[in-house]
Design goal:
single chain, alpha/beta, TIM Barrel, 37% helix, binds the ligand CC(C)=CCC/C(C)=C/CC/C(C)=C/CC/C(C)=C/CC/C(C)=C/CC/C(C)=C/CC/C(C)=C/COP(=O)(O)OP(=O)(O)O, binds SN-glycerol-1-phosphate, binds magnesium ion, transferase, lipid biosynthesis
């Protein structure tokens, strides 16, 4: 297994911080010392080189892994522990599957630290989200259709990560369960709409890694409570 895959394998809980949103030093310290396994830096709009460098250097004061989820080439900042590269599987627009990626490779060439890159097969499921609008994702999927996309990522493309993305809304548990049953090798990330311990526990039982984002900016105390909720939850096993 590649070193980057080994790095993310133990991640159960991750906070995703958006460079385009304000976060005080005290709040950042609470997040970084919360016991979460890692910080992902990313957003689907307003991410610039400047706000990404600024956030990375502030997180760097703490001893936990920090990943950049690359969503805009202008914000390809060196100095992260790893780079997570989304490919949106359920869009008809190849720009978001391979187009930006081809351009990135043409632009950065030998500067790309390949051994620090990890590809994520994104399945975008909230129609009312920035990422769905941006990528034109076909979010109107039955559970079995989402599971088929997950198997494209897992079994045909051998992607290290399948990312069920409900950004901004709590997902359908039955869909997540159906996807869980279909994914064998990829690490299954869940993100979207977690605002409480109970919601965190539900998704932690089904997924390898739970990502918590927006609630950080709305109710920090609730966000912090999700860390132990996830870590104390055992994953269900499916045959
Ligand atoms: C030189 C150097 C340091 C290199 C570093 C790495 C690098 C740049 C390597 C180049 C290789 C490469 C292949 C890069 C890919 C470039 C790229 C721009 C790909 C497109 C990625 C993509 C599909 C983006 C679409 C949007 C997306 C899926 C974003 C992921 C994050 C996300 C969904 C955040 C949620 O957004 P949020 O703002 O929270 O949304 P809400 O408003 O709903 O809350
Ligand atoms: O912001 P929320 O809704 O928690 O979603 C987390 C993450 O999946 C966003 O990319
Ligand atoms: Mg967000």
């Amino acid at each position: 297994m590649r070193a980057v895959q080994q790095m993310i394998k133990p991640w159960r809980h991750v906070f995703k911080l958006d460079p385009d949103r304000e976060l005080g030093d005290g709040e950042l310290e609470a997040l970084c010392l919360s016991g979460t396994d890692a910080i992902m830096v990313g957003g689907s709009s307003g991410v610039t080189y400047e706000n990404t460098v600024d956030l990375m250097s502030r997180i760097r004061r703490y001893a936990l892994p920090v990943a950049l989820e690359v969503s805009d080439l202008e914000a390809a900042v060196p100095g992260f522990d790893l780079y997570m590269i989304p490919m949106v599987l359920n869009t008809p627009d190849p720009t978001w599957i391979v187009g930006h990626h081809r351009r990135a490779i043409e632009r950065y060439g030998y500067l790309i630290p390949w051994d620090m890159l990890l590809t994520e097969g994104y399945i975008v499921l909230n129609d009312n989200s920035t990422v769905a609008r941006l990528t034109g994702a076909d979010t109107d999927l039955q559970a079995e259709e989402a599971a088929a996309y997950a198997q494209v990522a897992d079994k045909l493309m051998s992607l290290p990560v399948v990312y069920l993305e409900y950004s901004g809304r709590f997902g359908e548990v039955e869909t997540v369960r159906t996807v869980r049953e279909a994914v064998e090798h990829s690490q299954l990330f869940y993100g979207g709409g977690i605002t409480s311990e109970a919601e965190a526990v539900q998704m932690a039982a089904l997924c390898d890694t739970v990502v918590v984002g927006n609630i950080i900016y709305q109710d920090l105390e609730q966000a912090l409570l999700t860390v132990q909720a996830v870590k104390n939850t055992q994953q269900m096993h499916f045959e």
